[in-house]
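@channel sequence for tomorrow's demo:
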Amino acid sequence: MPTEIKEPALPDQVDELVQALPPHLRENFETAEKQIIEYYGMSPGMPALMRLWIASGTSWRIRRAFECAVLKIERKTLNPTASGEFDEDCL
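structure tokens (generated this afternoon):
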């Protein structure tokens, strides 16, 4: 019988972060989790959704979010392509 080797469990820092977030910052993840359960009957949970969100963030999206927050931009801005480059389709 093959024996499955399991690595020792490490503290789940993302799970701890989810619990440490104030309610207004957890709201989007809670909404996404409810929608996923509604559509698919199950969800990986908020920590996994947060990991997915972090993993899918590109450098230009992170920079754009930072710039919008710092510059207090409230209007709709141009949306670059997935590569972060602007072209005529952004308009």
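heads up for whoever presents: The longest helix spans residues 23-40.
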